[in-house]
Amino acid sequence: MTALMRRLxxxxxxxxxxxxxxxxxxxxxxxxGAGFLHWAFRQAQWxxxxxxxxxxxxxxxxxxxxxxxxxxxxxxxxxxGITWGMLRSHPRPDRSGxxxxxxxxxxxxxxxxxxxxxxxxxxxxxxxxxxxxLITAALLLSRWLAGRFGPxxxxxxxxxxPLGLPLLYLLGMVLIHGGLGLLPVPSAxxxxxxxxxxxxxxxxxxxxxxxxxxxxxxxxxxxLLRWGSVLYIEFIRxxxxxxxxxxGQNMLGFxxxxxxxxxxxxxxxxxxxxxxxxxxxxxxxxxxxAVPRGQLEAARSLGMSLPQAFASVVLPxxxxxxxxxxxxxxxxxxxxxTLLSLIGLMELLGTARTVMANPAFLxxxxxxxxxxxxxxxxxxxxxxxxxxxxxxxLDPAALARSG
Amino acid sequence: MPLxxxxxxxxxxxxxxxxxxxxxxRRVVPWLVQGGVGLTVLVLVAxxxxxxxxxxxxxxxxLSWSWLGQPAGFDIAETVLPFQAxxxxxxxxxxxxVNTLRVVIAGLIGSTALGTLLGMASFSGNxxxxxxxxxxxxxxxxxPLLLQLVFWxxxxxxxxxxGTAALQLPGVVLAKSGLYLSGFGEGLRWxxxxxxxxxxxxxxxxxxxxxxxxxxxxxxxxxxxxxxxRGGIAAVAKGQWEAxxxxxxxxLQTLRQVVLPxxxxxxxxxxxTQYISLAKNSSLAVAVGFTDLYxxxxxxxxxxxxxxxxxxxxxxxxxxxxxxxxxxxxxxxxLVQIRER
Lengths: 403, 341
Hints:
Order of helices and strands of chain A: HHHHHHHHHHHHHHHHHH
Helix content of chain B: 55-70%
Number of strands of chain A: 0
Largest interface: A-B, 52 and 52 residues
CATH superfamily of the largest domain in chain A: MetI-like
Distance between the termini of chain A: 44 Å
Strand content of chain A: under 5%
Helix content of chain A: over 70%
Largest sheet of chain B: 4 strands, antiparallel
Number of domains of chain A: 3
Oligomer: heterodimer
CATH class of chain B: Mainly Alpha
CATH class of the largest domain in chain A: Mainly Alpha
Strand content of chain B: 5-15%
Distance between the termini of chain B: 47 Å
CATH topology of chain B: MetI-like fold
Structural class of chain A: mainly alpha
CATH superfamily of chain B: MetI-like
CATH topology of the largest domain in chain A: MetI-like fold
Structural class of chain B: alpha+beta
Shape of chain A: globular
Number of helices of chain B: 9
Strand order of the largest sheet of chain B: 1-2-3-8
């Protein structure tokens, strides 16, 4: 107790000036906190979020087709559980063989709490509540199954399992879009969180190979490749995203033969991809610069071809160094999807605008913006957290320990 | 050793003595690769351009700049350059550009000041101050700027009261009708904002749109600048702090005279990136109803249909602003680099 007191005193009241700052900040914090609580529990009318929760989740996706989104969510939950379980059961000398380490127990508890409390807070109907509970149960069950029986799978099955993720992505596209016997749902009816995540994931997946190619091009010894890459990267980085989206919406129709221009949702997705690729290229380039030249020369002198040397010697090292800044780019890409609302797409912020234009919810801006801010903050913080975990895992020292 | 002329190209030999086929010859491959890429790009560009020209001709919109002289027909609420609806388009675009520059310059100054303070605060001895700085940076960086801007505008600034209920500080009044600042009035007299029959009057008035945009941009950029400053200060060896304090320098003196001059070398390149982001981010003004360059361009395009010209102008203008910032920051960078003796 005295140690804690001493520490507090040292941290907060070391000098009179420090003490004054502490008291001032505590006063501000108290006033701000009290004001916020008063607003959140007395003034705010959360009905605007409760009533429109479906709109915020999927936009105007037809009700009778929404089972497809539920199915996709359940599949994603199961895939998350399996990935999580397989990662845990993978033997690592730096970790005890425990199947449910403390962090996992905390995460599971949080998930269960979220599944119990969120539907309650949103006032969802019993049927929808039940679905969320089933999805959470599916996640935890597949986590348990993969952790328990994953190690017993034959090695070939274990190696093929990651291929399920891209397949799931394609399946998700089919489920959302329709086709293959499913009723097509026009992209103009996609919206809310669904559209935000779709645009962000599409751009993140496709900008990655493009960005790596551009970064390699920028460092190439061939002048045409180098100057081409530099020109592209600097052109894109010199323009605000909104002007590029504007270009995509207004000029693409002129640049392609009549009728070939993609729908607005896909135009925006491609612009986001091409935009993000230029920024990602710079992140990858800094990673490439960190790999000593000798690595490439050693690989070449072992008889590897140039593509081989890059694929198995240089890029793995460069991408590890570039990982934090790459994830930083992905986070800003997720945030940049809000700009789609400015060109009339119904992603989260666009949906929010239509909701607040409804006379029934006029002036409820604070509630809606606060909800969106929390949602975005959680997504971005989760990405950053995942990146830090991956960094620790890919740390050469940790890799050497686990062999 | 006798000189042998090496023309024509002698065949390259494998280590075993076999002749390397031409498609693997190191003197040929670079040309093959570049030729292939160059040809692909050329074909793509030719395809896009031919479509563009055909489509534009069909729409009767072939590249021309004469429309710039026609009267714009729209008004701009807040300008530095005087502008009215009967003025030509080019004046409107120029007024938009000046408005953008106004936001960018004010934003640069504000976010540099706030960001530097926050960056320094993250090294404070006060744990609470350090913690709050961290929380601020993490909250601001993980919420989209556009969301923050609409929050500032619709939730904070549009909720301000008018008239006597307005927020009043010495020399500054913040009301729903705008931000009023003291300044020199007629005859170089210092004039404070005053209420004249229910309406505030002051030498300087900023619209709430401008104030909200500026607040949002500064709040957002300063979090990133704080990180740049923090990184720069962290890059200065710990021994420098210790040496300075053992010489009897205070915390502030140490920071100002020993640490910051060294940290600037790391900070300036980082600031360059952040300043350019800020300039580009100012284009989100359209979301809060401030008429900047982008928003004038959008209106112009909607009225004239001149997509290509407007987009070209827009891209060129932002590129010029970015280049200007880069040039200034690069010369600043040369100024703060170590000069080896």
